[in-house]
Amino acid sequence: MPSLYVHVPFCQSKCAYCSFYSVPLGKILDNQKNGQIFNESSELIPQYLRGMAQEIKLRFTEAPSGVSTLFLGGGTPTVLNPRELEELLKTIHRNYIFVPEKAEMTVEANPGTLTLDKVAILHNYGINRISLGVQSFNNQILKRIGRIHTAEDISLGIKIIRKAGIENLNLDLIFGLPGQTMSDWQDTLKQAVACSPEHLSLYALTLEEDTPLGRKYLTLTQNLETNYPNDDSRLPLPDDDFQADMYEWAVNYLQGKGYKHYEISNFAKEGFECLHNQAYWQGEDYLGLGPGAVSCLRGVRTKNTEDLAKYSKMILAGEKAFDPLGTEVLTKEQLITEYMMLGLRTTKGIDLKKFAGKFKVEVQDIYGQILANYIDREILILVDGRLRINEIYFFVANSILQNFVI
């Protein structure tokens, strides 16, 4: 059965590096204060909640036997107030069966948007995992990348989460940020581990052209030796070699602290690996609801429109809110490519018998020469019927994985 992703397209303010679809409520509220009309902004969240309730009814038959996990992402789901959060969760639980009964249920949250009332509601509706968007414990860096919280807010948020009874906490962190030094990164990781999270996700900064950071830095020479003026608008980005050093230090440090490195960017205490993400990496079906959400069911991928007004209009008219440009029937070659590229991101890698059973072909028959080349050079390792990337090459995995596109 599929996993379930629900997109909550609201945040307090848009982070400088973020390319996900979201509506910054802070800007809307500022416009309201200034007497400006902003797309009926006071109705945005109620409009979204009505649309979600209707979409769940429209698409219930896509997962009639239930779902295996739940992930509320965004945006920032915890910008919703307690009543709105409860309405959303009540709608989900009213319509979906979770199998197993105590399925993993995750909500993304940002420090500064959490209250004990909100987290208590999440816990009461079965949310048993929170993924907290920490990114850094350095207040200057947080401000530089457009985050609205401080290191102090992180500590307060974690106290609230623990007090409410949530026992599975992930912290998201980013490295390779403007002006970030190795010392900054090491200090952030040490402070993160001191918070005793069960899970940590570490991501190298990715510059997207349609984000403020992307527009700023993609036109600059990304070199640590460049003499930038001493202001935040021209701080250097760590180069690839420096990012590789940051990644290597983090891997060694976290493994030494008892965190299992189970996917390129993910580390967990034993038994706390993210089940929802593992479903993606293993090529299982998933159902995505909400504006901008993606689904992949029985080899057909669809994407909802990234426009809240259009989404609501279509859904409330009884239509599915698919973006026609985001709908495709995946070929066998595409399914194999994605299965290899996602599975090889994990430390377990690919089970060759499972691959053959799923696709009715041996992996060697498709990738024979590539496998021979990489195995001979010990970039890929084949042991006990499993194929995986040698972990020392994880940081450059993308350059390896592109060879598995067919």
What does this structure look like?
The chain is an alpha/beta fold. It has a 9-stranded mixed β-sheet, with helices on both faces. A 3-stranded antiparallel β-sheet has the order 12-13-14, with no helix packed on it. It has 15 helices and 17 strands. It starts with a strand and ends in a 5-residue tail after the last helix. About 6% of the residues have low confidence. The longest helix has 17 residues. Helix 4 links the parallel strand 5 and strand 6.
Give a short synopsis of this structure.
The chain has 406 residues and is an alpha/beta fold.
Write the SSE topology.
Elements: E1 3-8, E2 10-11, E3 23-24, H1 25-33, H2 44-59, E4 70-74, H3 82-95, E5 105-109, H4 116-124, E6 129-135, H5 139-144, H6 151-163, E7 169-175, H7 182-194, E8 199-204, H8 212-217, H9 240-256, E9 260-263, E10 266-268, H10 275-281, E11 286-289, E12 294-297, E13 300-303, H11 308-316, E14 328-329, H12 332-343, E15 350-351, H13 352-359, H14 363-376, E16 380-383, E17 386-389, H15 397-401
Parallel strand pairs: 1-4, 1-11, 2-3, 4-5, 5-6, 6-7, 7-8
Antiparallel strand pairs: 8-10, 9-10, 12-13, 13-14, 15-17, 16-17
